[in-house]
Specification:
Structural class: alpha+beta
Helix content: 25-40%
Strand order of the largest sheet: 1-2
Number of strands: 4
Largest sheet: 2 strands, antiparallel
Order of helices and strands: EEHHEEH
Number of domains: 1
Low-confidence stretches: none
Radius of gyration: 13 Å
Shape: globular
Distance between the termini: 33 Å
Length: 84
């Protein structure tokens, strides 16, 4: 089932499969030296998933896709009291 993209103003339909494909594609082109290691990435994802600002893969504090923010080594949690 396709759902409205939560960040697109035109409310285009975006399937979970298409989202996962595009997300994987983006993450695959992040240079290794710019990525958090896998343990840190997973720790960040767990923290985000437990946060009140997390909703359907997005951070409502800043609007980012959390999986992208978590994979970038130099990223920081945007919450008022950062979780990581």
């Amino acid at each position: 089932m396709k759902e409205d993209c939560p960040v697109c103003p035109k409310k285009i339909k975006y399937s979970e499969e298409a989202f996962r494909h595009d997300l994987s594609k983006y993450i695959s082109v992040v240079r290794p030296e710019d990525r958090a290691d896998e343990a840190e990435y997973n720790r960040r994802l767990r923290q985000c998933a437990s946060c009140k600002y997390f909703s359907n893969g997005l951070c409502s504090q800043c609007g980012c896709f959390t999986e992208i923010r978590c994979v970038l080594k130099r990223s920081r949690c945007p919450a008022p009291k950062p979780l990581w």
